[in-house]
Design brief:
two-stranded antiparallel sheet; mainly alpha; 75% helix
Amino acid sequence: MTEPKRPTIFQAFIPIIFLIGMLVLNYLYWKDDTLSGANQIALLMAAAIASVISIRLGFNWKSIRANIVKTIGDAMPAILILLLIGSLAGTWMISGVVPALVYYGLEVLHPSIFLFAATFICSLVSLATGSSWSTVATIGVALLGIGKALGFNEAIVAGAIISGAYFGDKMSPLSDTTNLAPAMAGTDLFTHVRYMVITTLPSITITLIIFLIIGFTYEPASATTNTAAVQQAIKDNFNVNPLLFLVPVLLIIIILKKVAPIPALFIGTLLGVLAAIIFQPHLIEIISGESTNYAKASYIASMKSMFGTIQIETANEAVTDLFKTKGMAGMLNTIWLILSAMVFGGVMESGGLLVRISESIIKYAKSTGSLVASTVGTCIFFNITASDQYISIVVPGRMYAKTFRQKGYKPELLSRTLEDAGTVTSVLIPWNTCGATQSAVLGVSVLSYLPYAFFNLISPVMSIIIAYSGFRIHRYTPEEMVENENTDWKAQQERNALISNE
């Protein structure tokens, strides 16, 4: 049997160049709707190109397919978590948990500390919803109008909104990118979130201090704000009760008890169902269309919130847009993207193409700091060239996962770096789907708000600084390194066995 050839650096880059080309075309033709299928097909087409190259190098198709199956299998826990995230978001919405968080979050707004408060409010809402996009498009738009009325430059206000929204998006267990990064790196959701605190807390703290200083240089006059209208719309449609905070508090306690993510999220979903039945009986009847049998109505409304689209109609269009969830069904495009990415990553890995690329970069990374800096640069490169934050997490995640492990670093270091660089810098690129969308929603150009999106600018730099300092870098013990090598060997044996049995 002929030994497969080692790919050249040019051969290794061909599928990625092809992928970038298709992603650029997808953005031009589909704009912010590329996740509906265009990007997934691009990944599969690039995987086909990589397969042809791998086969020409002498790799067997059965071994390539076996590796694809394994990589998809590795992503299954993340897929299950994503489905549960969708159901939890739905039950927390109809229960009034998310609306209550928004309502009380708006209470902290005060003109003298407006920029600080705007960042804080957007952080709170984005943490609760897991979506920077919906936060910017609703509360963000309202805050922009308030800021302009108070005499603030709209670019500074937009920077505060973007900073808060992307902090919440990055740290929320409900966020798809917060689930995608650990899935690519090979760690679990809650380990990832806890480890991000090391770089994210200093970044948001510095950001809040900067906005506090800027805010106190202004003399804002009193103004009638439209936050009252938002709060009134929430009160008109939800039973806003402080007891609703028991639901997220209980989930946090469960997480702190180190309960595994899947059962923890399932419990959180059931808590949301219980809260909806107790606190929002009128919504249960409206969503279910059943007013005579409350037990039947509760079942129908709960099921709908977990698997499908729920939209609470209010007199305020912004509030209506905010309180819309898509349940498990809303996660299917992201799951489709993960499956397509796993196919692409599996082929690139089995043909030695990812190894060839990473070797050419890693040979210059002699320390923890330089390895993290290389990963940060790669994520930003894909945000610029691929115009999609998901790709900036998926591709570098697959490229660097094995290298981080072989160098003795636990996967949470990689997953944190992917978010520090991939998630937060996407909104700073004018042609990236995130940058284009947020700019259009706020009516402020990306290049105008970019200098004031302090959190997004600080995060990748903080990631590199912390890595160079060596502060709390999680490493495998020698025993764990041996176990990893044994696991890799067993996985290869399983793939070989699968091939020989066909």
